[in-house]
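Exercise 7.
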Amino acid sequence: MPATDKFELNTPGLTSPASIGFAITPDDATDLALVTRAIHVGGGGDIAVVFREGDGAGGFAAVTLKAVPSGSMLPIRVKQVMATGTTATDIVGVV
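Solution. The predicted structure, written as tokens, is:
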């Protein structure tokens, strides 16, 4: 029997719980399939990201978040996690 979702008719918003999770493999050339609502970092380290409004090159280039602890949930909306500059592991995007 499929799980019952008592909230399936509610319109989700940014304050709603996430409903999708996906593994992120850092990549310098490719955007994520979905812009994140948050990122979970399983193995601590640095994480280089391009925010949703960034272009990865001009005024909104990649930003490196330094020394992110293991198990952190970062409430950030990003469209790309860069391989260059990322040392964190087990990164999961949630939407």
